[in-house]
Design a protein that fits this description.
By secondary structure, the protein is an alpha/beta fold. It has a domain of about 110 residues: Phosphohistidine domain (Glucose Oxidase, domain 1), CATH 3.50.30.10. About 20% of the residues lie in helices and about 25% in strands. The protein has three helices and eleven strands. A nine-stranded mixed sheet has the order 3-4-11-10-6-7-8-9-5, covered by helices on one side. Strands 1-2 form a two-stranded antiparallel ribbon.
Length: about 160
Amino acid sequence: MLDGALSGTYLSVRIEERCRQFENWLSMDAPDVILKQADSSLHEQEIEPHSHSTSSNRYVGIPVGAGHITGVARLLTTPHQGEKLRPGEILVVPSTDPAWTPLFLKAGGLVMETGGYLSHGAIVAREFGIPAVVNLPGIMQHIDDGQLLEVDGNQGVVRQLNK
């Protein structure tokens, strides 16, 4: 057993344990954020991924691109709609992939329904120095195209200014 080989008895026990472990993992919900602590242990960060207050029109997500901007929201569902985006406008999208990258050259900010620190939109926003907030499920139903928004990429807050 010390040479890395398991006998048939131990192997069947190991397989049963791994099957139980896999079934347990399938029953769990993936966390929105996983952080590494100083003691090198991993844990789920207990955060509310998004919130909405109708009185303040304020949404809280995950801050992924530092900075602060106030600008016009441009809601796009595909990168093919990119001609609608004007320089400095805030790109509001469900998610991004490499096809969206040219639009980051014009965008002044990014608001994304899905994503985390390592999502495509987050990485590109940081590379381009664009304030960005992600993980705001359903945000596209609460914001109107052309509406004035404030995006705080330091705190992860998006505010509607003229609703």
